[in-house]
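Thread: Newbie trying to understand structure tokens

Hi all, I'm a second-year student working on a class project, and my supervisor (Dr. K.) asked me to get a predicted structure for one chain before our next meeting. I've only ever worked with sequences, so writing a 3D structure as a token string is new to me. If someone could post the tokens and maybe explain what I'm looking at, I'd be very grateful. Here's the chain:
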Amino acid sequence: MKTTLTILFLSMIQIAECQQSIYDLWKEADEIVETFHFDLDKNIDGNYIVNVRHYKESGLYFTRNNNNAYKTIGELLSYYGFDYNHQNDTLLFSFHRNEFEVWRVSAYSKNQQVMYYFSWHENKLTEIPKEEFSEVDLYVENIEKTIYADDIDKIKELILNWGPAFTETSTSCAYRIVIKNGQIQFPTKCLTYKIY
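---
Reply by user tm_fold:
Sure, no problem. This is what the structure looks like when written as tokens:
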């Protein structure tokens, strides 16, 4: 009887974990965030350098920015089959947006990597096939994989090698979440940079 109750209890916990939406995971992970802002500037000699502002904060991203859009994106990621190990995984969600909209979304787990265009007007994600990646798509993928690997120095190097952004109105934001033994490991990481 005791064994049956234990198995039932553990099954209920597992079901509850599976029912947590991606957006709810984002909001929970937003509790304590280590933030890195990467800016490409020129030094006194006129050479490009990467400045990094780094600090910790809470309620950084999903509790303050475009809640409805991110909720929709989280639901669509689940609908299109993005999943992760709720017990032990490293996740990366990357959003490339201009001042009006999120227009590219990437999601990584240990077993999955997907990149989509997001349409605000249609509330839909359209997968970007790897064989159709442009030079910028390949660069973005390289930066995202480096963020996923948590290699800050390599990120600085990649941004420096790419050069200045084409526009100051677009921003890329990557949100890295590590889960161990079913618990989010704090602080999570948020990294912002400009590339377009």
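A couple of things are worth pointing out once you decode it. Residues 10 and 16 are 10 Å apart (CA to CA). The chain has a mean pLDDT of 82. Feel free to ask follow-ups in this thread.
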